[in-house]
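Narrative summary of target 7.
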Amino acid sequence: MYPEVKNGRFTVEMVFTGKHPDNMRTGQTYYTRLQLGNPQQALLLPRGSFFQETGGQWIFVLSNEDSYATKRYIKIGRQNPKYYELLEGLKPGEKVVISDYSTFGDSERLELN
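Modeled conformation, tokenized:
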């Protein structure tokens, strides 16, 4: 299975052991509905370089005025190549810094210009 879903679709390459079904041909396209669990709402965070410094334990959250950012602890759940699922620590609509944190040192607060 290829790891990326686009427009609710993904590609699967099937290999049959033994004789393949008579009604299937090589290169043929099939459409099916696959549900791996119950759908649920989730807060998604784009993947970014911040993870290398924080291990996904915390993130800088911007103030309402976007004039500073403060360190806040978070809990990450599932992930895919593009997003992390946020289980705790952020509310919908909050803005965060996902770029590289290596130059921030042990800062608890970042002043933004």
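The longest strand covers residues 68-73.
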